Fold these 2 entries.
Entry 1:
Amino acid sequence: MTKTNGKDVDYLAASAYVRALEAELLTAERYEQLLAAKSGDEAAKLLQSFGYGAVEPRRPETIDAALSEAREKTFEALGGVIPDAALLDVFRIPYDYHNLKTLLKAEAMGVSPDALLTELGRVPSAALRDGGELPDCLAAALAEGREVLHTTRDAQLMDVAVDKRCFRDLLETAERTGSAFLAGHVRLRIDEVNRSILTRARRMGKTDDFVRGALIEGGNAAPDALLSGDAPADGALAAYLARARLVAFGEEPVLAYLAARETEYANLRVVLMGRAAGVPADDLRARLRV
């Protein structure tokens, strides 16, 4: 697939850069190497040989630190070459809402949030902590989350309220970029999250009314379709991104690469944390998305 409109041509250099970076993505064989390593220390050395920072298997926080460093390097590298750096916001925004939930829970419990905060979002964590100027959607989520915790004392309900605000922010941001591909990507992410919400709720014996209240708006699948089992099957997001990688140049291959990196970071966390906890390799392998 080759496109020639002006916006896509703007992405020629970025697309070429991403094609080079794709060669560094971890393959199934490299995950197998990590799973087959004789010890956590051996797995950590392998990880470094794959281009990641040093980790100490017995200290989980070093695993998160190495993955956060890799994420930030990716954001910085692509932010310098893509025409619209706002496209990266769709990958940064969830970290803002992670910080918001962390701060609200710490505030309610009277403990320090520092160990769980990240600087991968659009907004410095200090701005959230100190009540600095925030994007409207994030400010509204902070107010609503605090109110939910104040009135219900239920952290799970607060998570639901804030997550809904997060995905609203993601979709609005994607639509403002003018990228139909990016908006489609966010809608499919919402579908994926909603299917997870439904699965967990069914496992816990929750009612349909509870599920409707927890589902996130903005996806392709309507709540009734999800509840009845008529929604599209799993795998739609992966297929969408696979098609995007076939586009010669444009925002599609750039964003598909970012999504692939996010999957890689999630997989590595599963493998490294799982090994440190003594989880069998077969169980970890089943949880990987490759």
Entry 2:
Amino acid sequence: MKKFKFSALVMAALMIFSGCGMNNTTKGGLIGGGSGAAIGAVVGNLIGKNAGGTLIGAGIGAAVGTGAGVLIGKKMDKAKAAAAAVENAQVETITDKNGLEAVKITFDSGILFTTGKSTLSSTAMSNLTDFANNVLKVYPDCDVEIQGYTDNQGWKNSTAEESIQKNITLSQQRADAVKSFLLAQGAGTTQIKSSTGFGQNNPVADNSTKAGQAQNRRVEIYLYASEAMINAANAGTLQ
């Protein structure tokens, strides 16, 4: 019996991996079809990570039925489309800790900040204002996480260890700057769950090249289903 249950979980994960071309609605139905906290937890642990391996969202341990998964998928499809319309936003679909669809938005720090600084550029403020008004305010039942990253380049007159710490500090300041600005634009104070700086950890490109370094200097914003959204979906009232 245990072997059968494990195989079912693996099959559920494989279905999601193979569904890269599916929209969130279809994937939500597949995930919801696996029903139950156990499926959600295992699938979430298998693929509920960003490129660097950071788990997104808070596992609530609630069962999500097929219908609820479809409703959440539809809602996240809409949020993703709204985010994709924001200038300079690179948008993709990921999976959160609950095995549900989430949205990852990446802003190049070259767009957001000048080198070595955490003060938002005028372009960044315009983009983030658009993001706050047309995404966060429109989808207040999407929870938010903000993550800041740097490349692995050292700081002048600093040891390697000092540079690593300075990169962590800078990435934290940048993540906090984005959070503060979004809150100032009217994002819900309870909607943004965290802003965290990871420094040069979790690179998405080769740090040995200038192009790779530029990709690694970034701020990522994650939208995922809040507990309220999941409860509404389970009740069949999610719009």
